[in-house]
Amino acid sequence: MIIRFAVLTIWVKDFEKSLSFYRDALELELVSHPGDIPHLKVGEGFLVLVKGEFCPPADAFPPDFPQLALETDDLDKLVAQLQKSGIDIEGHIEERRDSRWVKLHDPDGNLIELVQVKA
Fold first, then answer.
1. Count of domains in the chain?
2. Could you read off the pLDDT of 38-68 as tens digits, one per residue?
3. Residue 1 lies in a domain
4. Contacts of 119 by beta carbon, 8 Å cutoff, 6+ apart
């Protein structure tokens, strides 16, 4: 039975800029891994950046669904920190009964979402 993801891979054109974004702006821990492919620690799993260009499908539905969602325990603080660093947030923080979230693009245009689950 599957219990969680182990590795999620996204493609990036500008590897160093994207690595800096995930490591420095989002503060994901960079860990070494056999094979010299950098892995960023996300909970018990890993985010792996691979040099290349992602090609989203032309008929994606919904078209603005994020490729990656990362959970945070303080969405307001993280958004303020990102905006202070000059990182653009898409729209505003959205909310429903059980969670709050905001969308943004990484340096390569990958749509990501930052989510805070309500207690």
1. 1
2. 899 999 899 999 888 877 778 888 878 888 9
3. no
4. none
